[in-house]
Amino acid sequence: MSARTASSTALLRSELCNSRADASNRSLKQLGTLSAYALAKAMDRNYSNVRRDVRRLLELELLARDEDGKVYVPWKDVVLNVSLTGDSLAA
Prior knowledge:
Elements: H1 9-17, H2 19-31, H3 36-43, H4 47-59, E1 64-65, E2 71-72
Antiparallel strand pairs: 1-2
Helix pairs in contact: 3-4
């Protein structure tokens, strides 16, 4: 599933509002490109948990990897366009 083509607005919103994901994104925006290990150290969090969060954010294309395998935030803002018809109203 891609952040750009997410069929469930509720799912994407829950992923974006996840406090761990939010903290990871804010840290990467402030610190720049980092390895998952360096991000965990900078956030004073368990490496395994950060690695899991990073994998999920990569799946959603909310993070990207550079040529060295380090992660970064490839966007300035995320804009959600919500349709008032169809399955986007499902919670």
